[in-house]
Design goal:
This protein is α/β, with parallel strands linked by helices and 260 residues long. The chain has seven helices and 14 strands. The chain has a single domain, classed as Nitrilase/N-carbamoyl-D-aminoacid amidohydrolase, CATH 3.60.110.10. The protein has a six-stranded mixed beta sheet with strand order 5-4-3-2-1-14. Strands 6-7-8-9-12-13 form a six-stranded mixed beta sheet, with helices on one face. The structure holds 2-oxoglutaric acid (AKG). 2-oxoglutaric acid binds next to loops. GO terms for molecular function: hydrolase activity.
């Protein structure tokens, strides 16, 4: 499977339309590259730290993000994990990401469970999701998660208990905690013997510098590909049979003991 992580620069001085233009340009550059799965970061259109704009930027589930990205999924014949957007549902607002299949059809959604309350208004403005998300794709079962969720191993373990074989993570993780980012991405992959694809932002939004370093981690916790600190598309090939091979060779998941 060939994956492409669109590490987008999200800066305060820009309007979402400018980011959309760059995203669509990067998608068009993937034409002919036989990519199977594309990931975008967390709240890339509005900008994670642009809290004052959340309400105005909110959209229904089948809103702008899905409508604009679905034709790209069809054109590129690739799954697209849309990154997250502010979803409006009745009077509630969520940090929601979606997975489109290569026909542009919505196959999975995830509402961020662990909202970030430190130096952030996310927890005041949004409602937390209450369900993990495991989506059956043509490449296996994908578990979806968002940024701060990385600090909560029980969420990833639950997804593995529900058959996840890889994790798709969108993030707006700050550079100030870049070491945590790498450590947590590798730990969640290794302890769950699963591929982890994590797409982050870069650039400075609301005074917070995005850490970049989007990465693809193997089920053995090794970084297979990693972006730098600037805007780029990280493309890498993944051998998904490694998950089953490693789980058979070193069957730690089988030795789980129920602690509750
Ligand atoms: O946990 C962290 O250090 C960063 C989390 C974050 O920025 C987020 O959830 O958007």
């Amino acid at each position: 499977m060939r994956a492409a992580l669109i590490q987008l620069r999200v800066s305060s001085g820009e309007v979402p339309a400018q980011r959309w233009m760059r995203v669509e340009r990067m998608l068009s550059q993937l034409m002919g590259q036989c990519v199977d799965l594309i990931l975008l970061p967390e709240l890339w259109s509005v900008g994670f730290s642009n809290f004052a704009q959340y309400r105005e930027a909110a959209e229904p589930l089948h809103g702008t993000t899905l409508l604009r990205l679905a034709p790209w999924a069809r054109k590129l014949e690739a799954h697209i994990m849309t990154g997250s957007f502010v979803e409006r549902c009745g009077s509630q607002y969520y940090n929601t990401s979606a997975l489109l299949d290569s026909r542009g059809i919505l196959t999975g959604t995830y509402r961020k469970i662990h909202l970030f309350g430190y130096d952030s208004q996310e927890r005041q403005l949004l409602t937390a999701g209450s369900q993990t998300s495991e989506v059956l794709t043509s490449y296996g079962v994908a578990g979806m998660a968002t940024c701060y969720d990385l600090r909560f191993p029980e969420q990833f373990r639950r997804m593995v208990s529900r058959s996840a074989e890889m994790f798709l993570v969108c993030a707006a993780w700050p550079k100030a905690r870049a070491e945590d980012w790498e450590l947590l991405c590798r730990a969640r992959a290794l302890e769950n013997q699963s591929f982890l694809l994590a797409c982050n932002t870069c650039g400075t939004c609301g005074g917070v510098e995005g850490g970049g370093h989007s990465m693809i981690v193997s089920p053995e916790g090794k970084i297979l590909a990693q972006a730098g600190e600037t805007e780029q598309v990280l493309v890498a090939d993944i051998d998904l049979s490694e998950t089953a091979n490693f789980r058979a060779r070193f069957p730690a998941l089988r030795d789980r003991v129920c602690m509750s």
